[in-house]
Amino acid sequence: MGVWYKKYLQVYERPFAEAPQAVVEEVRQKIAGLQSENPVVTVSLIGYNEEKHLLACLWSLSEMQCKYPLEIIGVDNESKDRTAEIFQACGVPYYTETQHSCGFARLCGLNHARGKYHINIDSDTMYPPKYVETMVDALERPGVVGVSSLWSYIPDEEHSRWGLKLYEATRDLHLWLQSFKRPELSVRGLVFAYRTDLARKTGIRTDIIRGEDGYLALQLKQFGKIAFVRKRRARAVTGYGTVGADGSLFNSFKVRVANGLRGIGGLFTKKKEYKDEESNLVKKK
Question: Which spans are transmembrane here (predicted)?
Answer without folding.
Answer: none
